[in-house]
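hi support,

uploading two proteins for the ticket. first:
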Amino acid sequence: MPEHLTSRERVLATFAHREPDHVPCWLGASPEWRALARQHLGLPDDESLSVYVGDDFRRVHSRFAGPEEAHPTRHLCHPEATYRTPFGIERYGYGYGMPLTSPLKSAKTVAEVEAYAWPSPDWVDVSHIRAEALAYDRQYAILGGEWSPFWHDAIDLLDFEGLVYRMYDSPDVVDAVMGRVADYYLGASRHAFEAAGDAIDIFFIGNDFGAQTGPMIGTRLFRRFILPHLKRFVDLGHEFDKYVLLHCDGSIRHLIPDMIAIGLDGLQSVQPVCAGMALEGLKADFGCSLTFAGGIDTQSLIEGTADEARAITLRTLEIMMPGGGFIASPSHDYLLPETPVENVIVMYETIKEYGYY
């Protein structure tokens, strides 16, 4: 067995497809779930929770520095709104929520798209990121960069049906919207890497391209409209010597070869109950090219017993650990209060006990 590694060394070895001392762990959870877990375990704060479960990652975020009227949570216009995106769209509901408007739904020309009030990458403050990252003394793998959900923002702006119809009827309009949205996130992440690149290990971005039974759009449209922009994010991360990890839910097996072709390093969440996402096949077909993070079925954690949580964790480790390239965590990056704390703790305790190489 390899000598004991730091969390950061463990994660970097895993991304390099080497077997470390122990499989890395990841805790992605909502504030509400974290509060329940802290109460259950009698812990004082989120950092102590991360230490307790053995989370090998820490994450740093930029802060909003744009005009006051564009603030994400202040001066919201709609009475139901809980959040405002960088693109001025107010959303409602749990977490990130659902859009209340689609301001470019009626746009028919590129000129109308260009006339929209687009945000500036200078609206992010990154001055604190390096100090926050280095406060962990390089013991943990640091996730950084903007979340960059350019696909979801394009849906918000055009409405999903409007976006798909325009892929056929007005592809130049889709190109203009996608380009503007991606430009914002790429510019903001570049600011972060220029200010704190030596302290960040992984560029972590998120876009859900999959539904339960297949991708949200076909391979041809994916390659035409999404893949070129996804490659821009991969290229930016590699420019600053970062691994690039994409959060992507759902059934996306048909898209994975294209993701590998553009140089993506890792895929996070990995929902094995979705069509084509059986772990044995993913590991056999793509395990030498991609690092997989997740894979422990969250639905089973929600609906099952503690013994079942232990069993599904053991089975996942057995399939995914060999050869490295696997980070153990639930198949959802944002555990909700509906997920029993007891089952999740059993999962992490099982990983601690049986995750040695």
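and the second one:
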Amino acid sequence: MYIYGFFTTLLFILILPFYYLVRVMQGKSFGWKEKLGFFDSPDLGKKIIMFHGVSVGEIIALENLIKKTKEIFPEYKIVITTGTKTGQDIAHKKYENIADYITYFPFDFPYCVRSFLDKVNPSVILIAETELWPTFAFYSNKKNIPLYIINGRISDSTYKSYRLLTPFFRSVLKNYTGIFTQSEEDKNKLIKIGASPDKTEVMKNLKFDIKKSNEVVDLSQGDNRVIIAGSTHKGEDEIIINTFAGLKKEFNDIKLILAPRHLNRMEHIIDLINKTGLSYGLRSKHADFSDKDIIILDTMGELSKMYSVCDFAFIGGSFNKTGGHNPLEAIVYNKPVISGPSIHNFRDIYWLLTRSNAGKIVKTPEELKEYMKKLLSDNNFYDSTYRDCKAIFNNQQGALDFVINKLSEILK
């Protein structure tokens, strides 16, 4: 590992000026001081739990665990690191009043890692998903800092690449105190590339540790079937409204809840609906389905509970480059979801959902309409989606308690 560190450091020094210039030109020159280890030592004391999530999806997945950790271990300071600016922005937004220090993960070179670990000096480190940083793992082990992978997952393509370098990854993975995966399949893959069977366990998926709302929603929908389009972005409102208008001609009993991600598009959305001739109302004005075809959800904080009244949901942010939003807000109510092709924020979740009928990824608006039509016309198929949602959700719960129990053993 010392030889690896020497050559990677030499390479880093040689390419650093060019890499920095490229990042500046791309508008991505963020967090350099922190990543290089040039930051002031935070006054955190000696009891510190560190969480790392590289970007948005991982930081969101850690939310319930971080909150529970703060509750169970109040005497410990919470440090959160990310690798991207978007992850950093979400971390500050979600954990400003929970975390004691939020910063960037260091570059994986000896000086940067040593500087970070010396200044932060965590008692235990939990890294979400499967981020393998050889130098960071080596120096964490050298300093006797327990280092864990949690919510671990390895894609088929990554697994194939890593298998070619099994001896190297075996030397890296031995520095981890424990590796906890989302599935038995992920566990077996990691063992095959060098993880110790004694250190590797299945914990299931943290993202499934969400709760239903206890609030009853009454929109006077009666026997009508309700579709939700949740967190739609620019360009998706047109797709959803036109798709719904087309389906309405064939299925007169359907209603739509349209929940735009940003309410500054309201005037445009209303204009789109008016062109279809369908009736609409605003949630803020207490509209319901007794006399409306579409309800626009123009209130804050109500979307998650609205999934309880739908029959199925389209998850927005997926027909652009946003990367999608959380499909589990619908799945928790056993309601199947449909998404466009951009789902990188929740790729692991869709990998599970699309192995059954719980979730579907469509590539075009035409595919979206055809799949919605299938859900509306094929009762047996729709019933199978309900069962699959319930089975997947039940099978994946328990990850949060697993990690909390492990932390209790480490920190006792």
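thanks. also noticed: The chain has 18 helices and 14 strands.
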